[in-house]
Design a protein that fits this description.
426 residues, mainly alpha
């Protein structure tokens, strides 16, 4: 009956027949499956867009809730979303696509299933639904990309991952995405694409915050032989690997010209990347300075970093906030105090230096009852940490578990933490 309606080109009668046959009582599953599969071939042969939409809606209605035709319904849903996207209604296309759960469909092969999910992720990104895009992307098991036949889908997947993390400026995740692309055979076969991937790896790794992972990845990336044909980016890696001071002015002209030549970044993005890279250069120089100085004045450190004292203080405090256990230098007096400012190595702080800083703080606060002084407490790893015992009760650390006496203030302290039981680490 469906074939007779198709041969007669009676499209309204075709829709009525499909609906009537699907609702017939005790209709066999095999008959409904064959009817839906046959009618799906007629979608592209409809004379008008309205007739095409009507047939798709009819087939989706009769296949709703039937597991034996769920694959056909998913394919019809993708066609319907493509029609809405062609009309410019991306939001409606995205709503239609995300309602279909294809990761549990057993009738789809890996390629078709992965392509379907990637289409869902793309529509979410195009409509700025970044949270939904992340949820959809997690449905793909990256182990499927070990299959060389899915190499093109692998590049598409990580390209969308880059789009997602660029929105939140997560530099390390962007680097990981490009790093995952690097072992793709099709990418390495294209020298232009391979060079671009290398450039992006170096750029986003340099923009990543300073930590152990970034340091190890810098050395691993520097060992790639293909990087020899990109001298500018090879030089950037050498700057960050060498334990030597360097200034952002040594990188800015060449890198700014390279970013403009790539043509992939807007002016705002370029300005943000250059500003972030300037901060990373400053952090690198602070780490290097901590290797050669046990005690240095803030004026001298600001001169070495080619920054103002205020900017240097901001970078030092930012490093202490993001990675307090790895900050190589600590500030021994409050930033508003403008005399006698000293920066010292965290492993070279003495009790005398702590008492000196405590005296400056007492003079700065000018209270009737002088605040309790700074004391030095030994941690289990034999590191010194400065604490001030005059902070309010709301900011005190946890109670000690194994008390011992503090030689500086004569009170009980804890060997299990770096702070006094009535104080907080600076």
């Amino acid at each position: 009956m469906v074939e007779f309606c198709y041969e007669a080109k009676d499209w309204p009668k075709l829709n009525e027949t499909i609906t009537m046959l699907a609702k017939r009582r005790a209709q066999l599953k095999q008959a409904v499956t064959a009817m839906v599969q046959l009618a799906s071939k007629y979608v592209d042969e409809q004379p008008s867009l309205e007739a095409k939409l009507q047939l798709i809606e009819t087939l989706r209605a009769v296949s709703e809730g039937k597991m034996f035709v769920e694959v056909e319904r998913a394919r019809l849903t993708k066609q319907l979303a493509a029609i809405h996207e062609a009309k410019g209604d991306l939001v409606e296309a995205r709503k239609i696509m995300i309602d279909t759960v294809v990761e549990t469909l057993g009738g789809m092969d890996k390629r078709e299933k992965t392509e379907y999910i990637l289409e869902q992720v793309r529509l979410c990104l195009d409509t700025d639904e970044f949270v939904r895009a992340q949820i959809m992307a997690k449905k793909i098991n990256v182990k499927v990309f070990k299959n060389v036949e899915l190499d093109d889908l692998k590049l598409r997947y990580y390209g969308m991952i880059v789009r997602y993390h660029v929105h939140s400026h997560n530099w390390m995740e962007i680097f990981r995405a490009y790093q995952s692309m690097w072992d793709s055979p099709s990418l390495k076969a294209d020298q232009a694409a391979a060079d671009r991937c290398l450039k992006m790896q170096v750029l986003y790794l340099a923009l990543s915050p300073f930590d152990n992972e970034q340091s190890s990845e810098l050395h691993a990336l520097n060992a790639l032989k293909e990087l020899e044909r990109l001298p500018l980016f090879k030089g950037i890696l050498k700057f960050f690997i060498a334990q030597e001071l360097f200034h952002f002015a040594d990188l800015k002209p060449g890198l700014e010209a390279e970013l403009a030549a790539m043509g992939e970044f807007s002016e705002a993005e370029t300005a943000l990347m250059l500003e972030t890279l300037h901060d990373r250069v400053t952090q690198h120089n602070i780490v290097v300075a901590s290797l050669y100085y046990g005690r240095i004045s803030m004026e001298r450190l600001a001169t070495l970093l080619a920054l103002s004292i205020e900017a240097m203080e901001k970078q030092l405090c930012a490093m202490a906030r993001l990675a307090p256990t790895r900050t190589p230098l600590i500030l021994l007096c409050a930033p508003p105090l403008r005399r006698g400012r000293i920066v010292a190595g965290a492993q070279r702080v003495s009790v005398q230096l702590a008492e000196e800083a405590a005296g400056r703080l007492a003079g700065f606060l000018l209270v009737d009852r002088p605040p309790r002084p700074l004391c030095t407490v030994r941690s289990p790893k034999n590191r010194s940490s400065l604490v001030w015992t005059g902070l309010p009760a709301s900011s005190r650390s946890r109670r000690p578990r194994s008390p011992t006496s503090c030689s500086t203030i004569g009170r009980q302290t804890s060997r299990s933490c770096l702070t006094c039981w009535r104080g907080l680490a600076i």
